[in-house]
Amino acid sequence: xxxxxxxxxxxxxxxxxxxxxxxxxxxxxxxxxxxxxxxxxxxxxxxxxxxxxxxxxxxxxxxxxxxxxxxxxxxxxxxxxxxxxxxxxxxxxxxxxxxxxxxxxxxxxxxxxxxxxxxxxxxxxxxxxxxxxxxxxxxxxxxxxxxxxxxx
Length: 152
Hints:
By secondary structure, this protein is an alpha+beta fold. It has one domain (about 1-145): 3-Layer(aba) Sandwich (SMI1/KNR4-like). The protein is built from 5 helices and 7 strands. The protein has helices at about 1-10, 20-30, 40-45, 75-85, 130-140; strands spanning about 15, 50, 55-60, 95-100, 100-105, 110-115, 120-125. The chain starts with a helix and ends in a 12-residue tail after the last helix. The model has no long low-confidence stretch (mean pLDDT about 90).
């Protein structure tokens, strides 16, 4: 995953909440009945979500088993999705990242999307890597001296 490669290059820019055991993820998926992309689930298993750059939070699916001191109440996807739904977001979206962007999975297509503040689709991506590269990486990579992808 590109985000994990960037975290190795600049670990000071990423603070993960803590890996989530596969059994915990599977139990959560069964309980929520969400159909989320496997690459997002893999990311959560490794990192548990976390903070990136100066303003981005990759939400943790639940509040359970958090080990990072940077995790604050409300950094979990369940809480944030409830807030967005109460503000008018359609249930077809599941928000997994907030900051400069509102990023979600379109549960109808299982594609990654960024949403306008009125919850209409701004951009669409086929994979977690494509989402990261074309949102956070483009926005923050040059500012923080991450090498161009073409030089890797």
